[in-house]
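User: Could you check the structure of this?
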Amino acid sequence: MGSAAQQSGSGTRRRALPWAVLGLWVGLLVLIAPFSGKLSDVQVNRAVDYLPTSADSTQVARIQDSLPGGEATSIVVVYHRDGGLTEADRTTAADQIAQVEGDFDLSAGPQAVTSQDGTTVMYPVSTTAPGQDDEARDEFVAGVRDITRGGDGLDVKVGGPDAISTDAREVYGSLGGPLLYTTAAIVAILLVLIYRSPFLWLVPLIVAGIGDFMSMGVAYGLHELFGTTISSQSSSVMTILAFGAGTDYALLIVARYREELRRVVHPYDAMRAALRGCGPAVLASSGTVAAGLLCLLAADLGSSRGMGPLGAVGVLCALVAMMTLLPALLVLLGRRVFWPVVPAYGSQPKERRSLFASMGSSAGRRPMTVLLGGVVVLGALTLGTLNLPGSLKQEDSFTETPDSVVAMKTLAEAFPERGTEPVVVTAPTDKADAILGTVRGTSGVENAELGRSGGGWTEIAVITESVPQTPAESETIKKLRSELHGEGAYVGGPSAEQLDLKETNNHDRVVVVPIVLAAVLLILIALLRSLVAPLILLAAVVAVWGASLGIAGLVFEPLFGFEGTDPGLGLLSFVFLVALGVDYGIFLMHRMREECLDGAEPSVAALTALRTTGSVIASAGLVLAATFAVLTNMPMVQLVELGFTIMVGVLLDTFLVRTYLVTSASLALGRKVWWPGPLSRRPAARSVERELSPTA
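Assistant: Sure, the predicted structure tokens are below.
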């Protein structure tokens, strides 16, 4: 009687719990939908929005906001004819600029500046009317472009810092849809190939999409509650992580669930067993990734500091969806979702030759040779970092050249003897005249003029003798800051912002890298109850990071034609590759530790772990690499560089480091891999010969 009642209660729970979980998710999505749609409204993509408040550029932007009219919108209208401008060209230019002056409230009348070779004339145009409203700025730039048009060989382009910002916002605004659709398509194709089922691939893909939708709502909430900086780059990476990491967790859960269905009658009970078996490893790995990403909160750069929480949100939302919604859907769909290869109760999987057992056996025969060979290969690849191009200029950040960048390159060729973007100095009004004299007397400065005044501050526009964002101009900016030190003045503007970005990234790298290494090491020690095994994993992921940057150095300029490297690439790629690489290391080492606890010596355990988890880790690595590869198709160089570097790193980690180097290091060290824990002293209980068999 009691047994029958117990079985009835169990049956009711099997039916009710999955439906309850599904209902909770429907309610959650209804609640979060209004917030998810607002994420794009709070994105910022200006360099000054990323900088710390202490940076000179940030102070200049803040002071400009307080001046009459607020922050100025500055553009340059460029007229160019290859054979030299004609009188008709000059008349056309003057008439069009006069119309611009009549249609818009400009700060001053634009003055023509003609190049020495007579091929180009530029008109600097500035207005304070749009203020800080990006939409109004974009409308102003579009309005000027509508008026200033060429023809019959006369080329007219609108450039300048705010025209470049307008083009960048247009590009960033177009990323969301293509990024999401391309990522979903790539994941769908890979899941179809991995599962070889016409139905099963849809379930994790839909759940990953729901996890991404949830992450957008949570990210918006973080911005509203804590002012978290959200850029197009960080939101793009969040989507990639939601799909990539989520699919990885789904692969592990589905693989274990399929295995349990052959041993357990009811899908509900099989899923419970699957979650008990792989759940701890999934939770530990996702927690490690999130902890590593959250270390970016120590960065001064707003974009990096904001990417940490957003990346963690993407991973954790994917985790919650895969640990709750995915199991519920799979249980409700039953065994038929695996058709045509349905795992029937009591059946045995088809025996196949294990590729990873073969790879493990090759490492097992000469572990030290394999280990040293792998270290030499990674070390050689790391030398490619010496070939990385210099810092990326603002105008070089597009994969397809917009009109604003064409204008700036035309100016650089036509005016090699002078700067074409002003450096802005903000000075206390009572010291403005003295500071103006100091600025004019600074080496590298061609001219400087007083501008607006208000609120105790005066603006000084400085034209340098150097082309914008070159080492010579950077040196002039540094000289200005040195000369004005102690005077209460600040030096800013577009070029100064790029210089501050580079210096802040360098500072953040020194601060964040040790924190990430320490945090991940402590987590691994706690999880693996060892000191040597965590150090092996950490050394492996650091080696992968160096090698992936080295490969990037070999292809960025020679193959892709990139003229610079994003200053934040080193730090961001380090954090992602360490966190994600350790993620896979946990799967492998966790299984190795289980085997050791069952009585196997570490050499046997290493081969068994590779044989049993290799295919799942390989599938997960391919999915994650493919999702980051989506970024290489985006129209911004920063995203392409980040996506390529992480994609290469994940592939190296999956197919070289995890398969050969970690396994060979474990084989070479034997029990010492678990030092100083008790497993390092446990006697061997199983023979290695059987594990070396490729069909074991």
